[in-house]
């Protein structure tokens, strides 16, 4: 081999060495950052470099290439996206406005579930889009009145306001007004896996969305259709299997119930009112160390009296010279109930009350959620076409704590701390069950 061949080989090896295929995790983190900030500054690029183990130059080039892809994509994909959005809107309108033969009522509460055989017959798919045999289908429909003007609702949805719970999808959203006071918003999954180098999505949102009809009293009538195909790659925990598989967790009923509650919250917060009182937190609370608390202020966030935001002061708190407060929000609707609370100090309360940026206030939220268990019963919860259920026979209690054991960066979790937390969670669950009058079974 002569020197020229050696030089060519060395150059080839250099080029090969420069080539780097990003891992799925690196791509996922980069894509998430790109959604929030397509033009990261040098400080943000350096942070990504440290977090992902990539050179700053690689980070810079990745974002440049991604922006180039985004500029080229609209003109190429626009006709396809317009056609997809139009078909999704047509399907949504038909599903939302037609009862039989699409929808059947099952269970004690007669929730509506989709007749899959009839659906496949009327909306046939191309061969390449046939449903995977491992896919789990969730399809439900529900309706309700929302305390918000139709135009305001449409603006909220088109701005992607997080007012409803959702799974993580990449989807196309299309809004259309059919007549004065009647709007439709259709969502349908769109796969960009080839562009993002991510593995193909195993979740697909088939044409779903809502019809919004304005009412004379300032409310809006909502009809919601939720239709998904989920191919679970990771087994759902046995405790939550019925909740998810029954359609309770992500069905149309929960979307409508949550939207109603969030719109009530917005309406109530426009008219704030204080109602201080002298009361005690329930026995399940741990942040008050068993002390009594005084409610300093309460702001209603819904028609239900329990839907409110409260600030409590812990009585006789002697662990420091500062007063201790507890900020709490509780809410309930037909899909479930939750209580979230966190301890705050006097300085943090002053920051919030003076109108300064509250994002700098350190919070460690704790709390619990009560949801239907999704098993057959006589409750009033959603069903799915893959496993029709008319309600729920019981509830699932999920408790979460965040407790600062040590502020030292070098601190490590020890067995004593684990044992303390386990005891705390077990005792709290038992206290909640006792407060609700439930049995130990």
From TrEMBL:
Similarity comment: Belongs to the HD-ZIP homeobox family. Class IV subfamily.
Region (Disordered): 1-24
Homeobox domain mapped to chain residues: 13-73
Pfam families registered for this protein in UniProt: Homeodomain (PF00046), PDF2_C (PF25797), START (PF01852)
Gene encoding the protein: ROC8
Keywords of the record: Coiled coil, DNA-binding, Homeobox, Nucleus, Transcription, Transcription regulation
PANTHER family recorded: HOMEOBOX-LEUCINE ZIPPER PROTEIN HDG11, HOMEOBOX-LEUCINE ZIPPER PROTEIN MERISTEM L1
Sequence ranges assigned to domain START in this UniProt record: 74-268
Protein name (database record): Homeobox-leucine zipper protein ROC8
Skewed-composition ranges (Basic residues): 14-24
Molecular function terms from GO: DNA binding; DNA-binding transcription factor activity, RNA polymerase II-specific; lipid binding
Compartmental location: Nucleus
Regions recorded as binding DNA: 15-74
CDD domains (UniProt xref): homeodomain (cd00086), START_ArGLABRA2_like (cd08875)
GO cellular component: nucleus
PROSITE patterns recorded: HOMEOBOX_1, HOMEOBOX_2, START
UniProt key word Transcription: yes
Keyword Cell inner membrane assigned: no
């Amino acid at each position: 081999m002569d020197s020229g061949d050696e030089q060519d080989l060395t150059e080839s090896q250099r080029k090969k060495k420069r080539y780097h295929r990003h891992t799925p995790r690196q791509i996922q983190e980069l894509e998430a950052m790109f959604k929030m900030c397509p033009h990261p500054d040098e400080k943000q690029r350096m942070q990504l470099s440290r977090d992902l183990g990539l050179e700053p130059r690689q980070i810079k080039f990745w974002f440049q290439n991604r922006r180039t892809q985004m500029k080229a994509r609209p003109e190429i994909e626009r006709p396809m996206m317009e056609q997809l959005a139009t078909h999704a809107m047509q399907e949504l309108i038909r599903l939302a406005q037609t009862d039989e033969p699409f929808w059947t009522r099952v269970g004690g509460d007669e929730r509506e579930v989709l007749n899959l055989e009839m659906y496949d017959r009327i909306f046939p798919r191309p061969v390449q889009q046939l449903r995977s045999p491992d896919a789990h289908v969730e399809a439900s429909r529900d309706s309700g009145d929302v305390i918000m003007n139709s135009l305001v609702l449409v603006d909220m949805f088109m701005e992607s306001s997080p007012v409803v719970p959702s799974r993580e999808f990449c989807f196309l959203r299309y809004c259309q007004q059919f007549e004065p006071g009647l709007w439709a918003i259709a969502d349908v999954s769109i796969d960009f896996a080839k562009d993002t180098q991510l593995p193909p999505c195993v979740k697909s949102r088939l044409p779903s969305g809502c019809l919004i009809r304005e009412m004379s009293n300032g409310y809006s009538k909502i009809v919601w259709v939720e239709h998904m195909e989920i191919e679970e790659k990771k087994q759902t925990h046995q405790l939550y299997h019925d909740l998810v598989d029954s359609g309770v967790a992500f069905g149309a009923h929960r979307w409508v119930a949550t939207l109603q509650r969030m719109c009530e919250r917005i309406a109530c917060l426009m008219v704030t009112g204080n109602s201080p009182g002298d009361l005690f937190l329930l026995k399940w609370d741990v942040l008050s160390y068993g002390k009594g608390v005084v409610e300093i202020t309460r702001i209603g966030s819904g028609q239900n009296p329990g839907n409110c935001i409260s600030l409590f002061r812990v009585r006789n708190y002697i662990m420091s010279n500062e007063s201790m407060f507890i900020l709490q929000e509780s809410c309930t609707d037909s899909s479930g109930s939750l209580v979230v609370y966190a301890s705050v100090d006097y300085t943090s309360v002053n920051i919030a009350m003076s109108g300064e940026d509250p994002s700098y206030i350190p919070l460690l939220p704790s709390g619990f959620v009560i949801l239907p268990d999704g098993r057959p019963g006589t409750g009033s919860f959603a069903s799915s076409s893959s496993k029709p259920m008319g309600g729920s026979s019981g509830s699932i209690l999920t408790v979460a704590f965040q407790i600062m054991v040590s502020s030292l960066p070098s601190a490590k979790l020890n067995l004593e701390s684990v044992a303390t937390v386990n005891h705390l969670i077990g005792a709290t669950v038992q206290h909640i069950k006792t407060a609700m009058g439930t049995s130990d079974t």
